Amino acid sequence: MGPVAREYTIHLHKYIHGVGFKKRAPRAVKEIKKFAAKAMSTSDVRVDQDLNKAVWATGVRNVPYRIRVRVERRRNEDEDAKEEFYSYVSYVPVASFKGLTTVKVEGGEA
């Protein structure tokens, strides 16, 4: 297990279906973190500010149905860190989600 970066399309709508209006955006962020933790096998997940703004852009109730994210597994620089790696999730703006698949990003560590 080493540093790697991949781009995913997350179908948020299925994760927040049936969730009350005032909890939809917070739940969406939690589900993105859960998705990244599972995909990268790390418990420490950090969300980029732009991704948070993209989720919240249309308000607490109207979360986007899908979102494209880049998930990077980075080495922890802290000496006293519990985990060797952490996941960093950032937003990737796209015009359309048609035909997009999971892609390994070259030059993963930014």
Question: Taking strands numbered 1, 2, ... along the chain, how are they ordered across the largest sheet?
Answer: 2-4-3-1-5
Secondary-structure content class: alpha+beta
N-to-C SSE string, H for helix and E for strand: EHHEHEEE
How many distinct beta strands? 5
**Count of all domains:** 1
CATH names the topology as Ribosomal Protein L31e, Chain: W
**Sheet of most strands:** 5 strands, mixed
Mean pLDDT: 95
How would you sum up the global shape? globular
Roughly what fraction of the amino acids lie in strands?
25-35%
Segments where pLDDT lies below 50 for 5+ residues? Answer: none
- Assign the CATH architecture: Roll
CATH superfamily: Ribosomal protein L31
CATH class membership:
Alpha Beta
End-to-end C-alpha gap: 18 Å
Number of helical segments?
3
Helicity, as a percent range: 25-40%
Based on CA atoms alone, the radius of gyration comes out at 14 Å
Pfam family, one: Ribosomal_L31e
Protein name: 60S ribosomal protein L31
Family: Belongs to the eukaryotic ribosomal protein eL31 family.
InterPro entries: Ribosomal_eL31, Ribosomal_eL31_dom_sf
